[in-house]
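Quick sanity check, Response regulator transcription factor:
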Amino acid sequence: MNTIRALIADDEAHLRDYLESQLKTVWPELRVVAHAANGLEALRLIDEEAPDVAFLDIRMPGLTGLDVAARLASGPKPPLIVFVTAYDQYAVEAFEQSAVDYLLKPASLERLEKTVAKLKTRTTAAPAASLQALLAQLAVATPAPVPAAAPLQWIRAAQGDQTRLISIDEVIYFQSNDKYTSVFLADGESLIRTPLSKLREQLDEQKFWQIHRSVIVAARHVAGTRQDFRGRLMVQLKGRPEQLVVSRNYVDLFRQM
């Protein structure tokens, strides 16, 4: 049986430690691979570690657990979500984010055992059964197909105090920052306000590859890959010194390289 990997996100360290100790009692084969103290850190660690399960405190600084779950829903391999909180009024909204379960702090061993049972069922479900469930949902109500929009061809970006019109063919890679997305070109860097998640929808996926939650790279500028001393997969670019980290969720793109 494959090891099930988990992340625990809570802004109170002693509560993270308490939940981990309880989990060791009821699910000894579970491996907690990361702890996060806030929502942004949780997103980063989930992207890097690709856990199977994420225990998310709902009330965290910055992004709440609900915000984190909503962002994960659009990712390629979202983990199973269990919300943990002291406030049961969040229950309805929590399950709207497709949580496997909902725990009130402090979670008792008896209650946690029920959660673990649900998680084990979900993590060991046969792919065929999951596919059958998906097909059944699609059979009930499938929206009419929407014609695909043409891939993005031009970008209007800020460079210093000027606005520049950039051909998509000039882009080497995109990298998201707090409020902006950086556009890296052969002759410098420009900024746009379009979030990376929105940008991804407008790009030709054959020409632009997402390799990290915060990075999309132009495939024609990829020279190859290597592993660094920490075991991370790194993308090497043609004619550029910087190397880009590939998160665990996207390493399958490079299996054949």
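Posting the structure with no commentary besides this: The helical segments are 13-26, 39-49, 65-72, 91-96, 109-123, 127-140, 196-202.
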